[in-house]
């Protein structure tokens, strides 16, 4: 998402990347008028392939004594062919007894979403999912969904048909709780950068154009963030049940629960990023779930900003393990294709994700939310940008 906004700043008006243009070639057998037909054919293929897997590789056939391994990945963005190819390269043999948590932004189109989740469900014993912003984009759905909430319902229905979990569940004493969320501007509490001209949120973030909401659910106030947070109420009883039957709990969301889980504004090419990434309601809700658990046994997984992250704040471990865009992986010091999905749990929580550049940086450097001196790379970017376009 971060890169996308950066691209939006460099190009005006934001244009579609060539990679994205290749992302949706027409495929034989996809019924554009009825996406559910696609789901049916994918599901049939999936069931046939699952029958061919050795029985002991299927999650439901695991030995009672085995502890589940839980893997996490966010921001799969399989509209990029390279990312879909990465999903298809995941082993069919290794993960039959494992759980995979997918923390949102699977794909922009319903078709790619269903194909991706079916591929994952063929490989993992259990797959959990929460929606991200890209999952709810309607711009390439050719009018199939009236709005983003209708698309959300279609995605949840598809998950239910594929056997993908979208609600809380306990697996061998480990509770896994998906949390719906959306961002709101007031999540950003740190001092604004005013020395350079920063593009508006509407210009930088495609959600404002690619998602469709009813007039009551504007993306400007807290209405959307509240709406998504209230969706978690339908799982109230299931969450209580998981709390009473679990030794450890993993909650997960697509969006960011605390501003400290994102670099300071002066470090960012788009300094207003914190206004479109997180939710105070989310942090409150996950704390209400983890509240009774002692430090070290609570973990929250998230996505969206595409920064690898692993830090403990006020007793809860927060982890982001994004696949992200192909061009971001090339620039990342730890790539991602070979170590993702990241194993977060096996007989307890695993060691720290390494390297996680920004959370490692903040483990040694104090955050300075009032400091608005731009980092050298940001200052250089805005100097060039201003020279090219004029003030
Ligand atoms: Fe996102």
UniProtKB/TrEMBL annotation:
GO molecular function terms attached to this record: hydrolase activity
Domain of life: Eukaryota
CDD domains, per database record: MPP_superfamily (cd00838)
Annotated region (Disordered), positions in chain: 11-36
Compositional bias ranges of the Polar residues kind: 13-24
SUPFAM superfamilies for this protein: Metallo-dependent phosphatases (SSF56300)
Name of the protein: Uncharacterized protein LOC109714165 isoform X1
Origin species: Ananas comosus (Pineapple)
Lineage: Eukaryota, Viridiplantae, Streptophyta, Embryophyta, Tracheophyta
This protein's encoding gene: LOC109714165
């Amino acid at each position: 998402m971060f890169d996308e906004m950066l691209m939006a700043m460099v190009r005006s008006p934001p244009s579609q990347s060539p990679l994205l243009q290749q992302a949706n070639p027409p495929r034989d057998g996809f019924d554009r008028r009825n996406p559910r037909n696609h789901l049916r054919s994918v599901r049939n293929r999936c069931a046939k392939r699952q029958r061919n897997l050795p029985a002991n590789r299927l999650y439901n056939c695991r030995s009672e004594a085995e502890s589940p391994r839980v893997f996490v990945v966010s921001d799969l963005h399989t509209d990029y062919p390279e990312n879909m190819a990465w999903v298809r390269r995941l082993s069919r043999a290794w993960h039959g007894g494992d759980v995979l948590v997918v923390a949102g932004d699977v794909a922009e189109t319903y078709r790619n979403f269903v194909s991706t989740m079916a591929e994952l469900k063929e490989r993992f014993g259990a797959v959990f999912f929460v929606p991200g912003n890209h999952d709810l984009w309607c711009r390439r759905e050719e009018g199939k969904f009236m709005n983003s909430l209708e698309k959300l319902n279609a995605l949840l229905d598809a998950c239910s048909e594929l056997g993908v979990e979208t609600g809380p569940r306990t697996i061998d004493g480990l509770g896994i709780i998906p949390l719906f969320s959306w961002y709101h501007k007031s999540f950003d509490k740190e001092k604004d950068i005013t020395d350079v001209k920063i593009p508006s949120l509407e210009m930088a973030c495609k959600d404002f154009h690619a998602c469709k909401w009813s007039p009551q659910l504007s993306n400007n106030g807290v209405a959307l963030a509240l709406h998504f947070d209230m969706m978690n109420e339908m799982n109230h009883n299931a969450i209580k049940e998981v709390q009473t039957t679990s030794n450890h709990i993993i909650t997960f969301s697509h969006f960011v629960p605390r501003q400290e889980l994102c670099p300071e504004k002066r470090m960012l090419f788009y300094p207003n990023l914190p206004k479109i990434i997180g939710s105070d309601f989310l942090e409150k809700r996950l704390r209400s779930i983890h509240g009774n658990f002692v430090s070290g046994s609570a973990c929250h997984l998230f996505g969206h900003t595409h920064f690898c992250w692993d830090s403990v704040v006020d007793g809860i471990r927060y982890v982001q393990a994004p696949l992200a865009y192909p061009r971001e992986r090339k620039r990342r010091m730890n790539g991602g294709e070979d170590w993702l999905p990241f194993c977060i749990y096996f007989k307890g929580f695993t060691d720290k994700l390494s390297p996680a550049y920004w959370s490692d940086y903040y483990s040694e450097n104090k955050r300075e939310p009032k400091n608005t001196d731009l980092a050298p790379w940001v200052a250089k970017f805005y100097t060039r940008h201003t020279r090219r376009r004029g003030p």
